[in-house]
Amino acid sequence: MIDIAALPYFLATVTVLVAIPGPNTIYVSTASASRGFRFGVASCVGVMLATLVHIGIAAAGLTALLIASPLLFAAIKSLGAGYLVFLGIKAIRSPRCAADETPLASASALSASIKRGFLVNLLNPKTGLFIAAFLPQFVTPDSGPVPQQIVTLGLILAFVGGLSDITYAALARLIGKALGNGNAKPDIGRYLTGLLYMGLGVMALAS
Which entry of 18, 35, 182, 202 is 20 to 30 Å from 192 by CA? Predict the structure, then answer.
């Protein structure tokens, strides 16, 4: 059980934090703008599933291992950055798929989007470090077991973050459609998508 008195402050803080676009939000928005809203939602689902994994790791106290091992942190960060660069190259080399936003969008393609969103967030060690540093600020030992409180607060965080990312995905799709309708060269979208993914990877590696 969490401290109900602290819940309004937690919700207010989380709402402000998730409203600020981060790498996950940019990734989900890019997927939605370039491929379709349902792909943006699928990417968001993957991101949320990875967030749940990070929450479980934080509740188990395993994040301390990541903090204590700069080598492990660097290795995971490099994997995540490399995966984003790989997605960028793949997006540029992939054939144009303007019809992705149709009822014919296959379940396997949506599953692939969920998997990519999951890996992008799972291989971002900063997500785990943020959760491990942020959630304990609202934990009250007298309210019950600390791991249980961290999981409860984490679920709330994941839910609010998911709503925020889906909202961004919807807005990004509207913008993507508007730009696509007035664009004489539709293929430019996949190049922009690929460059954005690679830029995120480079930023993740350099930060």
Answer: 18
What is the per-residue burial (b if ≥16 Cβ within 10 Å, else e) of 47-82? bbbbbeebbebbbeeebeebeeeeeebeebbeebbe
Side-chain half-sphere exposure of 206, counting CA atoms within 13 A: 6
Contact 125, 80 (CB under 8 A): yes
Instruction: Say how many C-beta atoms besides its own lie within 10 A of residue 7's C-beta.
Output: 14
Total domains present in the chain? 1
Element (DSSP H or E) covering residue 86: helix 70-93
Residue 152 belongs to domain spanning = 4-206
| Ranges of residues in the chain whose predicted pLDDT is under 70 | 1, 66-67, 95-105, 179-189, 207
The torsion defined by the Cα of 126, 129, 133 and 136, in degrees rounded to 10, comes to: 120
Short-list 113, 100, 120, 84, CA closest to 203:
84
pTM higher than 0.90, yes or no? no
